[in-house]
């Protein structure tokens, strides 16, 4: 069974930084597609950043230049480094993983980690 456990959320003032971690068990992340999503109550969940098995990354326009997604295969852990945080980045952040053959479907999810940015 594949499990994703997140850590690193919290509260920070605007302009500050946080790093989210997502530790994966039950599978090797080098063979998984990985992503970070966020959701605000009353709004649809949106993808923040993703990284494929080749290491190619993709970002939402709203976070380009501020957030960095990365993975450490040796630690089987996915990261999201968030810099220059804005109040509009406040959301529940979740990591997700999919098998290569899932073609866009995110099969596995973490429990979510709250990020709150104060102005």
Mind explaining what this structure looks like?
Helices cover 0% and strands 53% of the residues. The relative contact order is 0.32. The protein is mainly β and 119 residues long. The protein has strands spanning 3-7, 10-13, 18-25, 32-39, 46-51, 57-59, 67-72, 77-82, 91-99, 108-109, 113-118.
Summed up, what is this model?
It contains no helices and eleven strands. The chain has 119 residues and is mainly β.
Relative helix content: under 10%
* Share of β-strand residues: over 45%
Instruction: List the total number of helices.
Output: 0
By secondary-structure content and strand pairing, the structural class works out as mainly beta
Topology:
Blueprint: E1 3-7, E2 10-13, E3 18-25, E4 32-39, E5 46-51, E6 57-59, E7 67-72, E8 77-82, E9 91-99, E10 108-109, E11 113-118
Parallel strand pairs: 2-11
Antiparallel strand pairs: 1-3, 3-8, 4-5, 4-9, 5-6, 7-8, 9-10, 9-11
Please give a handful of descriptors for the protein shown.
11 strands; 119 residues; four-stranded antiparallel beta sheet
